[in-house]
Design goal:
SH3 type barrels; Lipocalin; 5-stranded antiparallel sheet; 2 helices
Length: 206
């Protein structure tokens, strides 16, 4: 009888030691694993982009569809397996390299300038100031119209994604063209950056 009691007590002590003293197993992730990570506003669909085993927060995590300035380091208990919790919609950065990789897509390279009205701004005193006189409309693949209604032309180099304007208010201006996706998104509208004046002109997507 005494032997049975000792055996039972020993088994109970072992169970308690396992429950209280043994560390819980933690998930291990590797580069490329999809996870859900809380970036302060809720869980975002994310991917592991770097692992530093010597850090207390070894997992560098990138939220899909966002700029890499949002990348943050997490410990394993701070992360959730992909699809295990509700996540907010994927961000609007269509040319996010990590998102493109997961989607199996290549970065978009425009072959023409997106038509419509472009609104220009300049950085002044740390703030964006409208440059209304520089606003313009891309009419077609060769013509544009300035803010005063004067017509001019432009040439688009598809290899370099650059424009050269002739005539109108932008006569002589050279510019770089950026379009992240087709169709463009509200979060990343087509943008023309004027090299000479330094102004940036966006084509709003409503």
């Amino acid at each position: 009888m005494a032997s049975s009691i000792r055996t039972l007590l020993f088994a109970v002590c072992c169970c308690l030691a396992a429950a209280l003293g043994a560390p819980a197993a933690q998930a291990q992730y590797k580069v490329g694993d999809r996870v859900a990570a809380d970036f302060g506003t809720g869980y975002l669909d994310s991917v592991i982009v770097r692992v530093d085993p010597n850090s207390p927060f070894p997992y560098r995590v990138h939220p899909l569809g966002y700029l890499n300035t949002m990348d943050t380091s997490f410990s394993a208990p701070m992360l959730k397996p992909a699809a295990s919790v509700p996540t907010k919609p994927i961000g609007g950065i269509a040319n996010d390299p990590e998102l493109l990789k997961i989607q199996g897509k290549q970065a978009f390279h425009p072959v023409r300038v997106f038509r419509g009205g472009y609104e220009c701004f300049a950085l002044s005193g740390g703030r964006l100031e409208p440059r209304l006189a520089l606003n313009f409309t891309i009419v077609d693949d060769q013509r544009y119209r300035d803010a005063a209604g004067t017509s001019g032309t432009y040439r688009f180099d598809t290899g370099k994604a650059t424009l050269t304007f002739a005539g109108g208010a932008l006569d002589g201006q050279k510019a770089n063209y950026v379009q992240a996706s087709d169709p463009p998104t509200k979060a990343q509208p087509p943008s023309i950056h004027l090299v000479v004046s330094g102004d940036a002109c966006d084509r709003p997507i409503r």
